[in-house]
Amino acid sequence: MPRFHDRTSRRRWVGVPRRPQREPFEAIADAIERDIVGGRFAPGARLPTHRATAERFGVAVATVSRAYSEVQRRGLSNARVGRGTFVRGAARAGREAVAERVDLTVSSLEPLRHAAEIFQRLVCVTPRDDALLRYPPVAGLPAHREAGAAWLRGMGVDCPAERVLITSGAQQGIAATLTALVEPGGVVLAESLTYHGVRALAQTQRFRLRAVELDSEGLIPDAVAAAARESGARVLYCIPTLQNPTSTVMSAARRTALIEVARAHDLTIIEDDVYGTLVPEVPRLAALAPERTVYIASAAKALAAALRIGFVAAPEPVLPRIEHVLAATTLGAPALLAEAVHRLIADGVADRIVNWKRHELAARQEIVAHWCTGLAIHTHPVSQNVWLELPAPWTADRFVARAQVEGVLLTAASAFAIDAPAPEAVRFSVGPPETRADLERALRMLQMLLRNENIARPVI
């Protein structure tokens, strides 16, 4: 699993050796566990006979017997003499189970208390606003670009409306920017643990991601310089503020050093700042180097997931290329949705939602601090995400599977890691549970799992 290691007064993420090859019975037990978690075998169902399973996997019956004993040891089944082996429900064993499934995989906190104010902005649209029913300009209606520029100024990015593009969410903004800047087969530098959406874009758009080493502040400038020299890359994608998945926030000094490296190696920076509203006080890379930074913000993350409107601020030479990609893909973001965001910003509701999110996330992070005492976590007082390094002998895949059996959904490190093997870690998000009590129940369950080494440890 990754860990922080002191070296020359800074802490680096360090990888781990590959796992030893597993015994055949363990592999069979893992497959049965996946079948149970995936719903192939429902609670109460009888597992196939030892002989049938031996034929399925092409092994001896004795190997299957060991596998079934391992499945039972993991708390997933019960053997009944003379009747067979049956799947248990979510293992309780004297523990309080999560009453309903809690999905901690989505990095989102929805402002349900502000729902009426959000919907009211849609109701206020009148027949006089008939331009909202037409195809908008590819870059967005002028009023919407002005609203975007005002929103970005609140983040410290002073950009004229003429250099702001309206997109269908930050994801489209990232995709359009990468398409405009990177040829198929090209190289993009990124944090070694990065947003999984960019990994997906690399596959679909056929460019290569080059991993850059991280430490407790995010990207290491010397590592960026080395990667740029070795790969010839001219584009750097990064999340300096509340990095996903590690929640690190890059210091002002580190940002200045990163800009110096970008200038020395002629790197164009894509600054993904979808969480930036939660930490507005740090300087943005786009403010420090507006001539080489494409800045991307999101109303979906800052306000509500359904408001899929993104703002892309780009340098003058790059702007037409991104706009051309938008024209070729969507012909412009939905004007009605952009109008709702415009009105939320103009009326001050957007600021109230952001302030509420900061307060609520701070309260939820206090719950995390309580229930994760003694665990290797990395997060921030107002972050939506928590990075959890798993103690031995847990592996990320097994922990995610076991947590799902207990009704808690997590994301394994493999979803974020550019290089293999992925660290033995998971990311969970504090925003999805409807109440703080729901979050607390889920964290209590995770803590109890982590304490149960019998489930995690392979049989020898």
What would you say this structure looks like, in words?
The protein has 460 residues and is of the alpha/beta class. The chain folds into three domains: 24-87, Orthogonal Bundle (Arc Repressor Mutant, subunit A), CATH 1.10.10.10; 102-108 and 351-456, Alpha-Beta Complex (Aspartate Aminotransferase, domain 1); 128-347, Type I PLP-dependent aspartate aminotransferase-like (Major domain) (Aspartate Aminotransferase, domain 2, 3-Layer(aba) Sandwich). It has helices at residues 24-37, 50-57, 61-73, 115-123, 142-153, 170-181, 196-205, 221-231, 252-264, 285-288, 299-302, 319-329, 335-346, 349-371, 396-405, 436-451, 453-456; strands at 3-7, 10-14, 77-80, 84-87, 102-103, 164-167, 187-191, 208-212, 214-215, 218-219, 235-238, 268-272, 293-298, 310-313, 376-378, 385-389, 408-409, 411-412, 425-429. A hairpin with a 6-residue loop joins strand 15 and strand 16 (385-389). Helix 6 (170-181) packs across helix 7 (196-205) and helix 8 packs parallel to helix 9. The protein is globular and about 75 Å long.
